[in-house]
């Protein structure tokens, strides 16, 4: 498959690119800075803003799927996720691409309060709540689109795989706390969804308890 990845130079995006190549796919890696992408066989680089509809339309034509795994390292209010999603949806509709996978995370929608004590009480209120306010808008835009979308909500990122049970749910039950997932696990899950056409029009919440 030909995959167009937004946020390809980020933590998930880099691992996703590596795993996609290993599985035999070709990747177009969106980035704002070309030097952030290592060019190897199977990888093309598209330099531009993720919220630039004209750039996206030109760059993503001819791809089989679009994957959005944008990140942000500041805590202030943002519209990055909703602005980029608006441009992505418009560009996909104009180029005829149907399959869209977007990574949001724990804190979006009904997953709020389900990331374990430390995330719920410290990380979310102090560091990530503003980005998730915009991710809620982002998710609503995706759900209203006519695309073949999947919204992925991974548990809080950890460097090492946890020992807890691996869980995937599309309806979040009361009391469920998913405390960890690695970026490699997220990348693998993304590719499983693309290749297997899994979780169409669903929002799986996944990770380790």
Automatic annotation (TrEMBL):
Annotated TM spans: none
Signal peptide: none
Residue ranges the record marks as coiled coil: none
Superkingdom: Bacteria
Gene3D superfamilies (UniProt xref): NAD(P)-binding Rossmann-like Domain (3.40.50.720)
InterPro entries noted in UniProt: NAD(P)-bd_dom, NAD(P)-bd_dom_sf, Polyketide_Oxido-like
Domain NAD(P)-binding per the UniProt entry, residue ranges: 7-195
Name under which the protein is recorded: NAD(P)-dependent oxidoreductase
Lineage: Bacteria, Pseudomonadati, Pseudomonadota, Alphaproteobacteria, Rhodobacterales
């Amino acid at each position: 498959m030909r995959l167009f990845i937004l946020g390809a130079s980020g933590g998930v995006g880099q691992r996703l690119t590596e795993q996609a190549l290993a599985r035999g796919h070709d990747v177009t890696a969106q980035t704002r800075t070309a030097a952030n992408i290592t060019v190897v066989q199977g990888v093309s680089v598209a330099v531009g803003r993720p919220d630039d509809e004209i750039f996206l339309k030109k760059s993503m034509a001819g791809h089989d799927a679009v994957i959005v795994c944008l990140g942000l390292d500041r805590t202030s209010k943002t519209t990055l996720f909703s602005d980029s999603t608006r441009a992505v949806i418009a560009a996909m509709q104009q180029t005829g691409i149907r399959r869209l996978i977007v990574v949001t995370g724990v804190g979006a929608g009904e997953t709020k309060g389900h990331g374990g004590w430390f995330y719920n009480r410290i990380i979310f209120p102090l560091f990530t709540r503003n980005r998730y306010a915009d991710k809620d808008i982002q998710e609503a835009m995706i759900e209203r689109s006519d695309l073949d979308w999947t919204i992925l909500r991974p548990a809080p990122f950890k460097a090492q795989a946890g020992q807890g049970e691996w869980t995937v749910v599309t309806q979040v039950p009361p009391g469920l706390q998913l405390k960890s997932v690695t970026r490699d696990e997220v990348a693998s899950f993304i590719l499983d969804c693309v290749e297997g056409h899994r979780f169409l029009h669903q929002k799986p919440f996944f990770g380790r308890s």
